[in-house]
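Budget justification note: compute hours in this period were largely spent on complex prediction jobs such as the one shown. Inputs:
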Amino acid sequence: MQKSLLIDPAKCTSCLQCEMACSFEHEGVFNPAKSRIKVFEFEHGLRAIPYTCTQCAEAWCMQACPVEAITKNPATGAMEVDEGTCVGCKVCTIACPFGTINYNQSTGKVIKCDLCGGDPECAKACPTGAIVYVDADWTGYQRMEAWAVKTHAEGAARGEG
Amino acid sequence: MAWQRKVLRVDLTKGVSEIEPLNMDWANAYLGERGLATKYLWENMDPKADAMGPDNVLIFATGPLTGTMASTSGRYAVVTKGPLTGAIACSNSGGKFGAELKFAGYDLLIIQGVSPEPVYLHIVDDSCEIVPAGELWGGTVWETEEKLKAKHQNPLLKVASIGVAGERGVRYACIINDLHRAAGRSGVGAVMGSKNLKAVAVHGTLGVSVDDPKRFMEAVRASKALLVDNDGRKELTELGTNAMIDAMQEFGGLPTRNFHEVQFEGVGNINPEAMERVTPEGHRNLLTNKACFGCTIACGRIAHIDATHFTIVNRPKYRHASGGLEYETAYAFGPLLGIDDIDALTFASFLMNEHGMDPISFGGTLASAMELYGMGVITDKDTDGVALEFGNAEALTVMAEKTGKYEGFGQTLGLGSRLLCEKYGHPELSMTVKGQEFAGYDSRALQGMGLGFATSNRGACHLKHDVFTQDMEDQTGQGKAKPCKDSQDLISMVDSTGLCLFVMSAWGVEEFQKQIDAACEGDWPVERLLEIGERIWNLERLFNLRAGLTAADDTLPKRLLEEPAPGGTAKGKVAQLDIMLPEYYQLRGWTPEGVPSNETLDRLKLQA
Ligand code: SF4
Ligand code: SF4
Ligand code: SF4
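Corresponding output:
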């Protein structure tokens, strides 16, 4: 079973534990500047929105790469960059409509989310549950359930059996 | 490892900056942040120098754990000589700026001299430019941050800046970073203004590493887990720091109307419950909570003002969300001024952030002015026609803005309450220690806290000692000297790690020890850390003594020593400083004159 990151911005406090966890896993240092996930803040911190790669099934980045440095990990479904093959041409960064694959000046290669090989560090570090790792087929389950609960409560309030 | 081992030194008089290696002997003896900056200050200036003159030195300091995954790792300190007190100033802030400075590769940023023209610093890793501030000068903190990000086309810039209050020398001007996080107390923003420095804008890409990553992450995870289930942590996340207002009200330790009373009838309109209440028109003050960098607590409140409220009904620019009421702000604008209008309090709080002022000292100063107005000493002629009466919400918001913009009577309020009360011939009405206004705990009800206020090196302050538990159990001065001293030493150490004091609801010294020991090279047993805390406290003391302060400054205002608490659980009591202070000096290894003895200095390796 493949899993996906499920992000709920309403829960995010903008603590950036996720950015540190991501950089620590991949670079061995705490460095948000090298994080694959980025948290955006709006209106004096009213809203914080974490953003990372959604692992498109037919990934633009993978299609665009002229040297086939990006391949799909069959176990996790993640599009992974092979650093040995990547030539740093950055075509993938142009191709990705979401901006979630980026050039890394210090290595001359691109970096993107690889789901940490199936054990996402960001989700483990997040203190609020704003990032969870769930069945890829059921990222909508929680939202569906919330609506169902609401419908149920309304029914109960009307005294329906 | 943990430290970046680099100091960025900027000489504004000469207009040059240079990077120098961190003195590791000092890092090993003072850890980082508060302690290390104190040592650098001690070595770099004469404590007698004018706080607003060219010889004062302004230090921004991160700790070894700043910018790591340890919970609450976003803290930095600003250490300098404070213009409000004439004593050492040590103001600590969260937000994201401190970690960014560390990511740019620096443990410390040392600013000396005075720039011939207004400037700001633009720091990106190894590059540091001193740039003319141009039209930024005269602008608010909020405008400054927005314009710097736009000008440098870098939304990732983190900015710490001052408003007009800091430029014009309001004695409790603060440095604001990330729009509403403040290095708040003792006038560190006025020092920045005196140096003609408008802002520090920084972007860092270098990251932070630790000595033993595996052991560090284990310690970090275990310590974070303790926070998850801790009740104190839950209260901070759910209610914010303002939960304290209900506790102080119940106990009768909530300074009200310039300390005439210790309980406030309007608390129910400004407490956490009020922040969450929905008005009949559907407005709710509190919107959400937010965290500083790395923090798994998230005590920060994000709030907004009712659009129909008199303060903003014609000012749509304030209809957005921003940093909401913290306890100290709620106390200093609420009970202390006798005001229970939550929107007025929130608006005044926005103004403090926008213009860069410390709400505690502003509230304390306005409270003394209100008392003088009630006595007929200050009149409408002085106040530009504003009735400075306790309970007048408009007086609060109008004066907050005038002081922030340094206009009219705001210039007098900008003096702080000590100078203001002296000016009007009533120094006894200034509720301050060493010239700094009190946080929201009445020393007649909380005796040990009172001792801490009297002995705090930066003047009245609630963040440098913690005797709450003992004070709530016993309302005398007996046995308070020891917990006061011990907590001062412990907190001096915690303030030097790069972490936030609020983790202490769930962590003991062992949690700090395990994380420091794994992050930093060398052995860091508990005893060493506690000794560092005590060393820092004593070095701050030496700074103050050399600056000209004496034991006579370790005191409380007459009102707390002579006028009994009018109500609450401590009804009839005064602050028992006379019992506590001699015992405190003795425990500290100080002479009866409050001077560290030679043995104490030897033991702490503080001999010159
Ligand atoms: S799953 Fe891993 S690589 Fe992807 S954003 Fe999270 S921490 Fe980074
Ligand atoms: S760790 Fe979670 S709460 Fe913190 S910034 Fe990331 S998504 Fe938001
Ligand atoms: S507890 Fe509050 S002040 Fe401390 S780091 Fe967290 S959000 Fe900031």
